[in-house]
Amino acid sequence: MALSNSTKEAWVLYQRKVLGGGGILRRYWHFIHKFYGLLLGFTIHINTIEEGLCIHHYGSIVIGSRVKIGKWCKIHSCVNIGQHRDVEESPTIGDNCFIGPGAKLFGKIKVGDNVSIGANAVVNKSFEENNIVLAGVPAKIVGRHTKEMYS
């Protein structure tokens, strides 16, 4: 059965208004996102984080809109992860990473899996190695994890 033009137009209008074009549901979820962001001190954009994120303490966590964070990461308070000047330059963080309080990650960088980033570290270059510990301003490798830590 073919749909008439008026039926197709009505369906497109419904999709725009209710499902994604500024309709009631979209406004509701936008409000909920902003409300909890203000309440808890987070600015975390939608679709930047995979499953299993653990935030140890609320307050002042900023994650940019183009950042990609892997599975099972742990983030402490006062962390800033975002782009540096250009919107296209955003960090990509691997799975099972620990980001200590006050850490800053910015620019077009990649961080490997099972990486621990120390408190107040500034990561402005890529560390694609796995199982390492980063600390300092600017961050550098200060240690390595053993496989027993993640089993």
Molecular structure report:
Strand 13 (132-135) and strand 14 form a beta hairpin. The chain has two domains: 1-40; 43-150, Hexapeptide repeat proteins (UDP N-Acetylglucosamine Acyltransferase, domain 1). With 151 residues, it is an alpha/beta fold. The mean pLDDT is 82. The longest helix is centred in the first third of the chain and has 17 residues, at 24-40. It has a six-stranded mixed beta sheet with strand order 2-5-8-11-13-14, with no helix packed on it. The protein is built from two helices and 14 strands; from the N terminus they run ααββββββββββββββ.
The gist of it:
The protein has helices at 5-20, 24-40, and strands at 42-44, 54-55, 61-63, 68-69, 74-75, 80-82, 92-93, 98-99, 104-106, 110-111, 116-117, 122-123, 132-135, 140-144.
What are the defining features of this structure?
six-stranded mixed sheet; UDP N-Acetylglucosamine Acyltransferase, domain 1; five-stranded parallel sheet; 14 strands; 2 helices; 151 residues
